[in-house]
């Protein structure tokens, strides 16, 4: 184990936390975490490969799904190095520069994922409200521009975060409360005023994630209005069923995010294990479950996976 007293004087690194209070149990998490990361790569990789090889899936909905899969892989890979370091190699120390780099990618991919979910809501809104012009509105060029805009927005809003952290002096404990670096977590260890950091973090959350959530909600109000205007109940269910996978993806992203935010703001009295559990659910669960949900609920993808599986089984 590292000498924690000595590490408090080291301003060039942080100590990440595995399972709070019971660090000797960290090794128990090695296999489950390895399984989660494997499922993430396998699931999202399968989605990407199926969409690439099946020309019938070269449609706006599946292009956005591909961007979501790439984002989930990027988010998972952002947490992978520190997770493996703690739970596989029992090495909780991370350099200051590596920490703020990881921080940038975690928050960046979080903003990207939120933007992708907004784009997918827009896609469903256009598909249901104006199906005849769907393909002409969401062309490949438009989708490409949307993707670039989502990425550019994420880079612009997260870019100041590393500099805001680097300007702070850390003269007290450098033990973080999670298995990876987050802005709000590192900020709490500073021995100077963090008002600028807190204000900027709040502005980013409100103007990106909060604004995105409102746009998604407004999109579904329009979708619901259109669906209720359809005379046939069967057609209503069919139209709404095309949105079900996206609704699940939105809930998987925003519910844990709201939980983490509320706990950080108002749950300081809660046991550390609660903070760790919520933070891990927020970052690890959506990349694992999103491809499973879309594989189950999307007929074309499910059919293609079954075809590939039985083709390989027949060859064997």
UniProtKB/TrEMBL annotation:
It is a multi-pass membrane protein. One of its GO terms (biological process) is cellular response to lipid. The keyword Oxidoreductase does not apply. The keyword Cell membrane applies. The chain crosses the membrane at residues 28-51, 63-88, 100-122, 142-165, 199-223, 244-267, 273-294. Belongs to the G-protein coupled receptor 1 family. PANTHER family: OLFACTORY RECEPTOR 51H1, OLFACTORY RECEPTOR 56B1-RELATED. This is Olfactory receptor.
């Amino acid at each position: 184990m590292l000498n924690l007293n000595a590490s408090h004087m080291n301003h060039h690194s942080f100590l990440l936390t595995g399972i709070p209070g019971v660090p000797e149990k960290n090794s128990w998490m090695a296999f489950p975490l390895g399984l989660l990361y494997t499922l993430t790569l396998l699931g999202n990789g399968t989605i990407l490969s199926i969409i690439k090889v099946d020309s019938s899936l070269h449609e706006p909905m599946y292009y956005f799904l591909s961007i979501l899969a790439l984002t989930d892989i990027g988010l998972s890979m952002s947490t992978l190095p520190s997770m493996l370091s703690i739970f596989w190699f029992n090495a909780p120390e991370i350099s200051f520069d590596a920490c703020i780099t990881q921080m940038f990618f975690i928050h960046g991919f979080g903003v990207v994922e939120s933007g992708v979910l907004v784009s997918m809501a827009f896609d469903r809104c256009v598909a249901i409200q104006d199906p005849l012009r769907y393909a002409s509105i969401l062309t490949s060029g438009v989708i490409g521009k949307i993707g670039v805009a989502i990425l550019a927005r994420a880079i612009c809003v997260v870019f100041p975060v590393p500099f805001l952290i680097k300007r702070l002096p850390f003269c007290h404990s450098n033990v973080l409360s999670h298995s990876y670096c987050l802005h709000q977590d590192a900020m709490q260890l500073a021995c100077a005023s963090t008002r600028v950091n807190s204000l900027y973090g709040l502005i980013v959350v409100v103007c990106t994630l909060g604004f995105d959530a409102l746009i998604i909600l407004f999109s579904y109000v329009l979708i619901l209005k259109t669906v209720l205007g359809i005379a046939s109940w069967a057609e209503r269910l069919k139209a709404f069923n095309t949105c079900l996978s996206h609704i699940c993806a939105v809930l998987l992203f925003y519910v844990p995010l709201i939980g983490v935010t509320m706990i950080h703001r108002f749950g300081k009295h809660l046991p550390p294990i609660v903070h760790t559990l919520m933070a891990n659910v927020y970052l690890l669960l959506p990349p694992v479950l999103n491809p499973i949900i879309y594989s189950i609920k999307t007929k074309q993808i499910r059919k293609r996976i079954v075809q590939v599986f039985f083709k390989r089984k027949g060859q064997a």
